[in-house]
Amino acid sequence: MMDWTDRHCRHFHRLMTRRAILYSEMVTAAAVIHGPRDRLLSHGGEHPVALQLGGSDPTELAQAVRIATPYGYDEINLNVGCPSDRVQSGCFGAVLMERPALVADCVAAMLDAASVPVTVKCRIGVDDQDPEQTLPDFLEHVTRAGVTHVIIHARKAWLQGLSPKENREIPPLDYDLVRRMKLQFPQMTVCLNGGVTTLAQAQDVLALGLDGVMIGRAAYHDPAQTLIGADALWGDGPGLDALGTAHAMYPYIAAHLAQGGKLHQITRHMLGLFQGRPGARAYRRVLSEGVTRPGAGLEVLEAALAEVQAVVRAA
After folding, report:
1. pTM for this one?
2. What is the mean pLDDT of the segment spanning 307-311?
């Protein structure tokens, strides 16, 4: 979720679920070491929250973990699943499915440097690999290195011939293979990613005997559908609804504007809040057009919300 799940997005999502663990956008180990650390690593306390790192150099990854430690993440995740060209050119992400021994070295170094759990997000295989052989071998390597929690995107990634978007949609899902990995590695926490867009689907996946579900872009494009009500999976009562979530963002947005920030930096993450509901199109239009005006402030969000509320009153 590079360029998507920044700290503003996570603050917004945390208002809808107290329990779900939120993941940062993937940050490369080199960027953490050489880049603007506070901008890359600072968060607003959206616990539980995980930092997702990309890289293939054990020493660099360990250094990045040590740098991130004071920022108080609850988990450090190594991405071995992203198929984008940017990632492949840096020899990390899904291409590392072809180098399980290197991944094992990476996570071992990260675990030595970490004070919190280190997890791995992977695919079932890449290109012409046979997932029936590749995935258990990969899991065996990371398990021996000390990893006890993996998130498996239940599709292969085709590093040549498919775009990142196509890699999220075209390769077939194999939930049964992931389920069998849980049976083969019973002591490991195994979570499934890929194709899950609703809480009902998430419950179906959990019923397979898996330990958890990761939802990516569906949670971004339709957050109310996937996040509001998620805490019921832990037995918690209802929290904020969509309108209440929008109103709860006011203080955060006001503080951001007071510090010189721009409205669109936050509201771009809120465009899908009313997805599929009456007034959603007008809400998005008013919000998208309004943020471009000089000095745009909370009045733009209020005007957008009025479009949704007007439909509710008319009904």
Report:
1. 0.91
2. 85
